[in-house]
Amino acid sequence: SLLVILYFIALNFAGQHCVLFLTSPSLAGHWGRCIGDCGSGGVRSRAVWCTHAEGWTTFHANCDQQDKPESQRRCFKVCDWHLELFEWEVSGWDRCGLVPGAEAGAEACVTAQHGLQRRSVRCLQKLNRTVVSSEICEHFSPQPPAEQACLVPCPRDCVVSQFSGWSPCGPGCAGSLQHRSRAVIAPPLYGGAPCPNLTESRACGAPACPLGEEQHTYSLRLGPWGQCRLPHPRDAELAGRTMLDLGSDSGERSAAGLGGSHPQQPAGEVEIGYQTRQVRCVRSDGKHVELSPVTSRSCVIPKDCATSEWSPWSRCWRSCGWGSVAAGLRSRRRRVRSVPVGVGAPCPELEEREACSAGGKAPFAWRTSEWKACQVSLLLDQQEPQQQKQAGLCGGGIQSRVVYCAQIVVELGTHRPKEVARPVDGKLCQGAAPASSQLCQLPCRAECAVSPWAPWGPCLPESCQHRHGGRGFRMRQRQVVVDPVGALAGCPHLAESIPCEDARCHEWEVSEGACVTDRGHCGPGHRVLKAVCRSRKGEEVPHHLCSELPHPEVVACEVPCARDCVLSEWSPWSPCSHSCSSRNAEGTQSRSRSIVALPAEGGKGCPPERALREQRACNEHPCVHFFWDVSPWSSCSEDVLGTALNASSSWSGEPACGVGIQTRKVFCRKSSSGQVTPKRCPESIRPEAVRPCLLPCRKDCVVTLFSEWTPCPTACQPGKQSRYRIILQDSANGGQPCPDTLYEERECEDVPICPVYRWKSHRWSPCVLVPASVRQGPPGQSEACGHGLQSRAVTCLSEQGDAAAVGDCVRWAGAMPALVQECHIPCKDDCTFTPWSKFTACSSDCDTARSRRRSLTGRSRKRDKCQNTELYPQVETEPCPCEAFTPQPHGNWSDCIIRGGPAELQLGMPAQGAARECGQGVRLRAIACYDRSGRLVEPSLCSTSGYIEEPCTVPCPFDCRLSDWSSWSPCSSSCGPGVRVRSKWLKEKPYNGGRPCPRLDLKNQVHEAVPCYSECNQYSWEVGPWSPCKISSEENSLHCGEGIQTREVRCVKTKAQVFQIKKTELQQCTLCFVSAGWSGCQLGANATCGHGERRRLLSCRRSDGATVSMQLCQKLHLEQPVPTSSRCVVPCAVDCQLSPWSAWSQCSHTCGAGGQMVRGRSVVLRAAGEGRPCPEQLTQHRSCPVKPCYSWLLGPWSPCTLQGGQCGDGLQVRNLTCVVHDASVSATSKPVENALCGELPSKESVLQLPCSVPCPGDCHLTEWSEWSSCELTCISGRSFEPAGRQSRSRAFMVQAAESRESCSGQEVETRPCSGGKCYDYLWQSSPWRDNVRTVWCQRSDGINVTGGCPLRTKPAEVRHCSPPCRKPFSYCTQVTALCGCERGYTEVMRSNGLLDYCVKVPGLEDKKADVKTIAGKNKPVNSKMHDIFKGWSIQPFNPDGKLKIWVYGVSAGGFFIIIFLIFTSYLMW
């Protein structure tokens, strides 16, 4: 135990030195979320602990504190408002690549391999597109995945076609080769095997030629041209050189001798040198003959283009990119010092641009003017054709304003932007523009509505200083229910008064107490009246303020007992029947109580009916009352006593108006007469005669500054420019009016003149030939003649003729004239001519021709060959230029275009008047202009506009038209509530997008109904007396029995009277309130839409429709039908609002046919209700005039041309022609002058191509094969990549067997393609024959190929028996691949079905075959039945030829079975 304790102490001691801080994410805590203030002031924390080397946690004191990691760090605290500042930037997925270490070979791969795709995911700040921490964006949305799994197809080997047939052998005895080739169908992909050899060759079986009788052919082999070099100085006078003087205008050639082999030449010098090539004689077997001549030709020493250094970068600028996220641009330029000469390098780009940061925030923002007045439209059923009332309309409408983009300018010395900014192009503002129109409500005029009069109040004094007595007034009041809106007259008076005497400020209010019985719980009793002193406001006040305290009065009462009649409490007093009393009418009011329970037997009976009702007089004052009347308020005028002065209001809306006063007259009026003395009306409620008011603010017109002048149409041509300004606030109340000029136009000033430069070409130098020391010719021949080159100087001149830099001409003067041209110095045997004369003059007729001539000179005039005009023409004729042009219409007619409206406006530019949407217009059709020879020319030569114009009409929209309202129909009910109806009928349906009709009935009518009521007692039945009884049977002689009586019944209209019902009939019935249908929604006067009121009548009816007695209806207060109403809404008609037409876009094609110009407009406000719908046409198109397209047309390549030889290096050339066409698919090109096509392409790279013709015995490349069909890379029948691939190939062909080793190689080209297919590659095999068959690979479209099929699934081509047939006299069969025996032998099989050994059939000795053996078959080799049933055959013989024991056993068994059957049959008998 001691040893164990010591062991643990040592272990603990050792562990103290192994304690450390861990910050690994696997053990230490992760950083927590950032907390604190928004922005960079956040803090995040994490847990840090001390851990032992073995992984358990210990105290912090055990670790070195100096190594302790930080547990807090500063961070960027992300808040919700940061969402608009940061975003994830995700790139596209990279190409799917194999996962490292997961590559699968072609043998192991079945369908596809595991791959991985990656992409870049970054968190960016939107403002400057800088990368920030990903945790900021993760606060709003999780980080998009940066990797994803994908599939890579299995490695695919190169797929080639089958070999072609062998080429024929050559005639004769010379040994030659046969060739065959194949092409690449699909290149190797994803690590597949490379392509095999594409050619094979074999020797022909021709016999060898006898010695000395070989048959050979010879050819001249031309080598490549060498480098162009200057001649030796002694030949300088023959070579010469021409200086291109780019700085002077003398134009003379400066020919100078060469001081050395390669002296330093000035820039732009044209030097003519020479170049040579070897010529060898080659035999057909590839051997060279000793002849090796050298040919030469003149050439131009190449000079590269020379440029100056780059200029400094310009300052950062933005054109239309201000206000957008796009960065600015800066540029720099360099000038051309010398142009390229010969095959020298062309000039590089002369201008360079790069993105830059212009800094600062884009100073542009959307601004708006004030809203215009609300415009209201009538509904269709409100439109009266006879009365075109537009003034005073109210309800829902539309108001608009001008929306424009403004340049924000900050005032100097402040940080506030100016309120009125300059309008600019709408493209400079970010985000969507504010709405330019909105729905609005124009309040309808409403008369003042007041409530009924309240009851008359008590007699109150004017002042309560005197407690009791004195003169006072009784008053009644009413309230304003609906305030007047827009009405000229105000509300009527709201208070009336009556003078009275003995006015009191306080009075007693008496109330009854509870009934207290005198004895017991029921029976007679008494109640005490309580008095409370109240003020005229209804407040309880001390008793001394009222008159003498009334004595408590005791009133008799009775509490009913259980058997007595029970009465209800008295109802409140009804309203007074009259507001005043006169000699003819007095005011009364009543109250009542009802019988609640009838008395039981022995109980006290109920009082009579008259005791259930009480009545008293009220409003006994005379019908004369007084009220204060007022005149309308005067207009607001300035108060001379005040200090406020009238001032103009600023556009920002801050009030700066003065305060004025309004006055009116106030007088007391008597109800029955007129104005009376003011003493008759109470002074306490006298209306005010003066009130303060706000003087109407004077609003000055506020307009924006003028916009910038629009740029001139063309930089180098005169034109017009315009500018505009926008009204932000109209003037009102005498303010400064708006200016008349809102749009200005002027001619362009200071138009920059296009610099004019031109090339000046000087005389051609003499023709320079190859030096005589270089030329090789027959001995003694030294004539200097033949083909050479000549050069000339070209200078750049300004418009004034002064010398200019060559860079100016390169930029402004177009292509530079040729510096060098081929020339010919005739030899003494050549034909020489004078220069061509000028062409003869042309007449005005277009059918004439012009010609020019030349003539022979010197000895050429006497030579016969020079007289041949077919070889040497002396007259040239060409048609005269014709100025006759023919226009031809092209394309379709454009949409009908209405001219004269404010079309082609930029966003924010105010429209000058309303745009015409219909009426007369024009439609345009583009033309193509052709000259007399059928070539396309500029359309301006046929028409100034380039169009054919034709008048057209845009049909105007016609709204739905309804008739006037008909007269109101009679009430639908002759008794009780009903409806009166009036209607409008359809006069004209809407068309061409007019306002639709309201909902019509089947008769195309719209109805309006209002409730009505007809008195029911105005009609009655009038019954006449019965006639005498008439006997129906005439045979009855007694004239008695049953007969018929008749009487007359009529419905007559009588005077209103009350009928007494004498006979009482009892039946069950119910009372109900029956209401007529709702009327249409009724609006106020001049209202077109909005909130209205619908009405109906509520009447007293019985459920069966019969009239109810008037007494019952009176109890329900339904003596007459009561009108009821409810709120309703009539939807407003909002017409569709469209923006002005935009400017016509640029033509979609710069030249040719098919170009389109388009302009559009957008829906500003969609139609609602019965408003006019939006038109379907929001865009208009028109074809562009067909401008000629000029382009260089490259002709086909010529065959490889060898000058002076039969094989070797040559040149392929093709022609370059300037043609004109209309860019259509079926366009025919016509050749025109080269100047119309502009700058020539590089001739050396476009027009000439080196080539070679193989000499006998050389290896040469075959022609390119045809492009293979487009094939997609697919996995399980689905395309792996969006584009497919096509391939073509060529290989080296061996001409001689000796060069077979040195001639190897092949070329394969692959290009992407579209519209490919997925192909499968499957193994195919032929039937077995002698255990051998043919196996090949076939593509799913039936093409036999090599490669493509997986080798792991390739079927066997040779079949072998397993195990091998090694027994004597055995062999391998075809069908089952099992061992069998030869003819004359039989098989002895094992239990597993395999051959054990072969036994010879006894007694046959090959004379007669046993049928049990294979050899006994008619066709043992091809027998199938034997192979199938061979395993079931029985072998009765041993190998020694004796019968086996089991044969005897079977025979004995059979014998006993026969005996048993015979014995059984005997017993049955």
Report on the architecture of this protein:
It is a single chain. This protein has 1469 residues and is mostly beta strands. Among the domains are: 2-102 and 117-139, no CATH class; 225-256 and 268-306 and 754-828, no CATH class; 1370-1468, no CATH class. It has eight helices and 96 strands. Strands 17, 18, 19, 20, 81 and 84 form a six-stranded mixed sheet that branches. A five-stranded antiparallel sheet has the order 15-13-92-91-90, with no helix packed on it. Strands 36, 37, 38 and 39 form a four-stranded antiparallel sheet that branches. It is extended and about 175 Å long.
**Global morphology:** extended
The largest β sheet comes out as: 6 strands, mixed
Strand content: 25-35%
Number of E-state strands? 96
- Amount of helix: under 10%
Q: Which structural class best describes the helix and strand composition? A: mainly beta
Distance between the termini: 109 Å
Domain Thrombospondin type-1: 1363-1403
Main location: membrane
GO cellular component, one term: cell projection
Region (Disordered): 246-267
Keywords:
single chain, 1469 residues, six-stranded mixed sheet, disordered N terminus
List the helices and strands and how they pair.
Blueprint: H1 2-16, E1 20-21, E2 35-36, E3 39-45, E4 50-51, E5 57-58, E6 72-77, E7 86-90, E8 97-98, E9 112-118, E10 121-125, E11 130-132, H2 134-138, E12 147-153, E13 159-161, E14 177-181, E15 184-186, E16 199-203, E17 218-222, H3 236-239, E18 241-242, E19 270-283, E20 294-300, E21 306-307, E22 328-333, E23 336-338, E24 351-356, E25 364-368, E26 375-376, E27 395-400, E28 403-407, E29 422-424, E30 437-442, E31 449-450, E32 460-461, E33 472-477, E34 480-482, E35 495-500, E36 506-512, E37 516-517, E38 523-535, E39 554-559, E40 566-567, E41 587-592, E42 595-597, E43 613-618, E44 626-630, E45 637-638, E46 648-649, E47 659-663, E48 666-670, E49 675-676, E50 690-694, E51 698-699, E52 702-703, E53 720-724, E54 727-729, E55 743-747, E56 757-761, E57 786-791, E58 794-798, H4 806-812, E59 820-825, E60 849-853, E61 875-879, E62 886-889, E63 919-930, E64 936-937, E65 947-954, E66 961-962, E67 976-988, E68 1005-1014, E69 1019-1023, E70 1030-1031, E71 1043-1044, E72 1049-1053, E73 1071-1075, E74 1090-1102, H5 1110-1115, E75 1122-1130, ...
Parallel strand pairs: 17-81, 46-51
Antiparallel strand pairs: 1-4, 2-3, 3-6, 4-5, 7-10, 8-9, 9-12, 10-11, 13-15, 13-92, 14-16, 17-19, 18-19, 19-20, 21-23, 22-24, 25-28, 26-27, 27-30, 28-29, 31-34, 32-33, 33-35, 36-38, 37-38, 38-39, 40-42, 41-43, 44-48, 45-47, 47-50, 48-49, 52-54, 53-55, 56-58, 57-59, 60-61, 62-63, 63-64, 63-65, ...
